[in-house]
């Protein structure tokens, strides 16, 4: 290629288009071949490139800082940014001073919940305690009333046993040939009263049966006294207490008497009297 | 900010590290060239967000296709700038960009004005605005279309209703004018 042709080639503007990337691949290849063959072309291209580069440099516009951050992140190179680490330290420190506050706020919230839960638990416990206490009182009442019932039944049972003993004795004595049963009937002092006395024909012993008596009530200073009428004279056979079930024995053994025509009961002061108080003769019956 | 502590390396060092995929070089490369490349992108795409997306895409592509750069065919910056220009033009013609225009005309205008103002804040640029303005209007019009608007010289010829040869000549004259001023 002649110098004139080369100059014309350079001045055609194709090299500028090459640098601006405005050529087809084939055209670009031609330019590259020319540049390889002709240092003038290569130098011209370099000069155009430098001019464009200068032009770009001096028309530079600063992009926002986060583009670089995003770029490094996207390429996974962000750890290579020392500036970024330094910059990000103060916010981290600030966060660090905030985080414990958040944590303590969280703790306070938890403690508040705990307090509410405790109060609720206390109220429930107190209510439960009152319910339990009143139930316990009910139970105590029930136990007391059951005890009372038990005592009542025990009393009934012992009375029944007492009466059963007396009645079985009465039956046994009625069947027996040994025992004589003397029926005593009410006297003017106490017409409704009646009583039985059992007299053993062999050993002459005398028994009274609480079950088989119906006598007027006595006060604390008086008790009953049994008398035997021997040849018209009263002989004391001893005293016996009130008709009640305080003693376990329904039968009371009195003093023996060898012979008697009749038996009688009077009400005498405690301990008995030497002579009967005929004004208070309650029952009497002949043998 | 980075203007005060720009990291710099010579071009052969940059190319060597870039092609050996040394991670540290990306930061250096970004520090040295991001604003120059963004200056080109942001004049093609005036919408700030989209322009910054393209800037990011540009550096991703530079990083990923570094092996394809051949230093016998031209300067590293030329290669990078053409990546940026191609991505910008692709974006400009994409559905994505057309959609964003529908609702954001006013925003685009505002950000465009902002970017024009930004240029004047760069001390290196102070003379350039004037320089470009001092280009003869017919040279300026062609350079604007090809350099800033991403037009091919064929499209510029159609747009300006000029013969293809005239467009080529005017581009050459404009660049010669720039060379003269920079030298």
Automatic annotation (TrEMBL), chain A:
Keyword Transmembrane found: yes
GO MF, one annotated term: sigma factor antagonist activity
Transmembrane segments: 113-133
Entry keywords, A to Z: Membrane, Transmembrane, Transmembrane helix
GO annotation terms (biological process): regulation of translation
Domain Anti-sigma K factor RskA C-terminal: 167-277
The protein, known as: Anti-sigma-K factor RskA
Record-linked InterPro entries: Anti-sigma-K/W_factor, RskA_C
PANTHER family: ANTI-SIGMA-K FACTOR RSKA
Top-level taxon of the source organism: Bacteria
One Gene Ontology cellular component annotation held by this UniProt entry: plasma membrane
From TrEMBL, chain B:
GO BP, one annotated term: DNA-templated transcription initiation
SUPFAM superfamilies recorded: Sigma2 domain of RNA polymerase sigma factors, Sigma3 and sigma4 domains of RNA polymerase sigma factors
CDD domains hit by this protein: Sigma70_r4
Gene3D superfamilies: 1.10.1740.10, Winged helix-like DNA-binding domain superfamily/Winged helix DNA-binding domain
Gene Ontology molecular function: DNA binding; sigma factor activity
Domain RNA polymerase sigma-70 region, chain residue ranges per copy: 29-96
Keyword Transcription (UniProt): yes
Pfam family, one: Sigma70_r2
UniProt entry keywords in alphabetical sequence: Sigma factor, Transcription, Transcription regulation
Cited NCBIfam families: sigma70-ECF (TIGR02937)
Protein name: RNA polymerase sigma-70 factor
